């Protein structure tokens, strides 16, 4: 482990503030604007809507702190892939990378492309029949843009990071103090017309989790931090607290500005709230800012997703390894991995809706997340001597909370959406024969 850590050692020059900015930038994406429709549909009331965002933030903070211990103890290139491999072995690690390659990243790209197209249609009053062509167009455009090199993709991300914060800050700052004709009561917390409070609470909680997507990557900074034993936990706590506060406030503004019964199932709720707050012209300008934010989120998934299947190919861990390891000649970015990812995303655009796709990727990734939470207990028991620059405070409470929260997401999805869960599990398990076939032929050739 020591040799591997040295091999992948990174320059430790990251302080608290850049780490904090990274946490916020990783997590905040398109979900903050568009998950409000499914969250309100699940909760049935403004009060429960606000509560589930708080609950999701609480679970995510504990999950992030749990992963932080793994990240600090195993500061190697590869992030969660390496954590799973170190704790459970190569087969589960391959299944994680496989699931990321064929479900997680393509589903995120397709889901966000769908909402991007929906907002373009709403903003310019285009025909709804253009949704799929626009969604495919943006997915293909960003794939092609990233072929021009990491500098181009990174530049898009930098612009989008600023753009995503502008509409959020403006909507919150102005929306909180804008008079509203809608009476919003946060207490007592009820499920409105929904008959079962706890079912509504659970469904609303699950619906929020795509907006927190990205938290699993916050621990990847451990190898680059000057003082991970102090700053890693601080950046995660303060970063995810800030994100939770942003989500709670902007959700409150949405339910404050719009009649509650117009929000469930309405993916244009964010732009409609912006128009109501700022007027038609101002609202359209803010909506354009939201579009740029979603554009950047799609770009982020496009840019990072191709690296997963590329690494599998470069390390000869997948069939057609040389195919997936192929890079563009001049810019040296993954070519075939990007083509496959984009094709899968286009297929998903035809087959799924925003909520269906995001629910599937959340379900699959939380299975592996729970495995990592349990892994903290395994390593504490089997390798107590392992250096841990950061150790979870109040252990074992945070990982237990994370396991309960993650377990609920998995079990709840299995019960409420068995078809979706079955599809996610089957696609993930298809990776097993692919892995075994490749290993068999690799061993024959050695």
UniProtKB/TrEMBL annotation:
Keywords: Membrane, Transmembrane, Transmembrane helix. It is found in: Membrane. Pfam families: AA_permease_2. Its main location: membrane. The chain crosses the membrane at residues 14-36, 48-81, 93-117, 123-147, 159-177, 197-215, 236-255, 275-298, 333-354, 360-380, 392-414, 420-437. GO terms for cellular component: membrane. Gene3D superfamilies: Amino acid/polyamine transporter I. This is Amino acid permease. It comes from Companilactobacillus ginsenosidimutans.
